[in-house]
Design goal:
alpha/beta; Purple Acid Phosphatase, chain A, domain 2; 2 domains; 6-stranded mixed β-sheet; 5-stranded mixed β-sheet; 20% strand; elongated
Length: 437
């Protein structure tokens, strides 16, 4: 059971990029994935008898979306409303809300939240306020703040017993350069140094893998679009009331007090939420993620020290079969990383035979019974730095050797500074290019 279901970055009008040479079956599965992921979130809301489905992030662009896409989404919103579940669309400003409402023909059960207009709901006897931690005021001036309470504009109302604060970053623009303009918004859920009121619950949507303050609940997109995202895809289910408890939780009163403004443009309106953690600890709120993805990306690592394309294809196919993918489960897009034992010659050879190896693998692929597609095949660029330094030291004489030595020094410095794997990956590629020329 859940009281509110959260769906981040449904991206219903943006198709997932297609892998090269993908067969029609894989293309069809990728094309259906965003909508099927959204349908999974809707099903979660319906089956859990949720009072609200909260959409935030890039759900559907009213300018890009086709009339058929808009009509399909509107029909799903109306069906949810018939089951007693309201759809709450969080947007950056009132103009966006008007455009979405017009594109969807104002379906029954759809309402909106903006940074200056939160929404008050009654959920199983609890007064719940949903508000946004986004908007141009936060991004450009740093002086914006969360509204103290919906009740501040309605003197006859008591403060809300629960407050749901929703925010998200702009990782869409940085992960997927498809020409989408950068949105107004906050780039990370950094603590602002102030303590939020009791009864506040924080949800943070992002396609990036990032650290969040204690008490902030990160949520990935419904469906990932590439292998560099935080998770394959899920929706969030929040239970505010424990109906099996001995005490009446609906009668417990936790008024929500004003939240302080951030101190700089880089500081988000989502503050360090210790109260949210205590709220979950006392049984009044429970958070869980429900998988919604229909496509997942994974890396398959295996060792191949010798042999041609036939031997390599056989080894890869055997490794894929051992994974025993569910015939009815999500499609898995696989990247094969070949450990060459530190041999630069073998790394170059793997690159040379990759096309022939792919051809053999795709001859074995049966889309009806095997839900895996091999997209990339390359020598493992995360192989140990010791092997990289050894190969750089044994490079040819002259300018090539000097460059290789400098390359090794730069990688060692990067490893010491904790710069990640990018310098090592680039160095392996450079050594392979020098070896093949």
């Amino acid at each position: 059971m859940a009281d509110i279901v959260f769906a981040f970055d449904a991206a219903l009008d943006r198709p997932i990029p297609l892998p090269a040479a993908a067969p029609p079956t894989v293309i069809e599965l990728l094309a259906r994935a965003p909508w099927e992921a959204f349908e999974a979130a809707v099903t979660t809301a319906r089956q859990s008898r949720a009072a609200a489905l909260v959409l935030f992030g890039s759900s559907l662009d009213p300018v890009r979306a086709s009339p058929a896409q808009a009509a399909r989404l509107a029909a799903m919103i109306i069906e949810l409303a018939a089951d007693g579940c309201q759809t709450i669309w969080i947007s950056d400003d009132a103009a966006d809300c008007a455009n979405v409402a017009r594109a969807l023909a104002e379906p029954a059960g759809l309402s909106f939240v903006t940074p200056v207009a939160p929404q008050r709901l009654d959920i199983r006897g609890l007064s719940v306020e949903i508000c946004s931690a986004r908007g141009p005021a936060f991004a450009t001036t740093g002086t914006g703040q969360l509204l103290p309470s919906f009740a501040s504009a309605h003197s006859s109302l008591l403060p809300a017993q629960r407050r749901i604060v929703v925010g998200w970053d702009d990782a869409w623009s940085t992960l997927h350069a498809d020409g989408t303009p950068v949105l107004h918004g906050l780039h990370a859920p950094l603590p602002g140094g102030s303590t939020p009121a009791a009864g506040t619950f924080f949800v943070w949507g992002s396609r990036r893998l990032q650290a969040v303050p204690a008490g902030v609940h990160p949520l990935p997109a419904l469906q990932a679009r590439a292998g560099n995202e935080a998770a394959a895809g899920a929706c969030g289910a929040l239970t505010l009331t424990n109906l099996g408890g001995t005490a009446s939780l609906a009668s417990s009163y936790h008024p929500v007090l004003p939240v302080a403004a951030p101190h700089s443009p880089a500081t988000t309106a989502i503050h360090s939420a210790t109260a949210a953690a205590s709220l979950a600890a006392d049984g009044r709120a429970a958070w869980r993620e429900v998988a919604t993805h229909r496509v997942a990306w994974r890396t398959l690592a295996l060792t191949s020290l010798s042999g041609g394309d036939e031997e390599l294809a056989t080894a890869i196919w055997g490794a894929l079969e051992s994974l025993t993918p569910d015939p009815n489960g999500p499609l898995q897009i696989v990247r094969c990383a070949i450990d060459c034992g530190g041999s630069l010659t073998r790394r170059v050879h793997v690159s040379e035979i990759s096309a022939e190896t792919f051809a053999r693998l795709r001859q074995l692929f049966d889309p009806q019974s095997f839900r895996m597609w091999c997209q990339d095949l390359e020598a493992d660029r995360s192989e140990g730095v010791e092997s990289l330094v050894r190969n750089a030291s044994s490079s040819k004489s002259g300018a090539t050797a000097s460059f290789a030595s400098l390359l090794a020094e730069q990688v060692l410095e990067a490893e010491k500074s904790g710069a990640g794997t990018a310098p090592r990956e680039a160095a392996w590629l450079a050594l392979e290019l020098m070896e093949s020329t």
